[in-house]
Amino acid sequence: MHRTSNHLNLSIVIVTWNCANFIDRFAIELLSSLKSYSRFEILVQDNASNDETVKILRDNNIEVIKSKTNIGFAIANNTLITLCKYRSVLLLNPDVFGFSPAFWSKLFQAWDSVNPLFIRLLNEDGSFQNCVGDVLSLRRYARKIMGGIDFAAINERCTVGMGIMAFMLTSRECLDKVGLLDEGYHMYSEDMDWCYRASRAGYQILYEPKLSLYHMGGGSAAKRWDPLPARLAKIHAERIFVTRHYRGVQRLTLRLILACKVGYHKLQALKLR
After folding, report:
1. Residues 77, 97, 159, 231: is their CA dihedral positive or negative?
2. pTM here?
3. Domain 7-223, CATH homologous superfamily name and number
4. How many CB atoms lie within 10 A of CB 109?
5. What are phi and psi of 98, to 5 degrees?
6. What is the pLDDT of residues 242-252, one digit of tens each?
7. Which helix (H) or strand (E) holds 209?
8. Would you say 96 and 213 are in contact if contact means Cβ atoms under 8 Å apart?
9. pLDDT (tens digit, 9 = 90+) per residue, 73-132?
10. Beta-ladder partners of 250
């Protein structure tokens, strides 16, 4: 998608929860990278933070809708998506860094304006983060047994099964056709569910590895749960996905695999006590 001006026509959607430790850096960097552009908006929904997140954002002249309770990632994003006024929509986590003015022009040059686009996300040490992959299926487990796909080694744009919504660029038209995020997921797997539905609706899930940003990863979730509850929450979300989208042998087999994973993680936790 080539632009002849600095008009982005972009709505940036951000959900926060207790991000005071890094939100000032995020706000300053994001706003600085956008200074030379116009026709964009930043929409923020705060999920009842009990720290200085909202104050810091407002001090940076970013408007915030503050919830009285933590309504979850999906509901918060959906609330903001319905308010977006531009045709391009970016779902962005507040713990993503590395923005520059050049990033935005490169992003829109890489995007076809039709299909959802994900980029390479890096850990703080510069290593590859598991930001794209296959949706949960028996095929994914079979691939894993056979060695799997090394997504870190991919250097050219390609299609993937899914990406994490720490960074996802899409369009209002796509969102209207696919639908909003499934609010049955409080946290985890809503991105996989949406990508699966987008693929079923005829969209390609694009991955552009030549564009990269740093993602602290779980900047909010890391403070919310210790490792075992976090793993169990992810498995619970995966069970919802399996129930939503599969039938017959595939559903039964995947539910059995997930039950085994629950048992394994609980056993490992007992060993560490």
Report:
1. negative
2. 0.92
3. Spore Coat Polysaccharide Biosynthesis Protein SpsA; Chain A (3.90.550.10)
4. 12
5. 110, 10
6. 999 999 999 99
7. strand 206-215
8. yes
9. 999 999 999 999 999 999 999 999 999 999 999 999 999 999 999 999 999 999 999 999
10. none
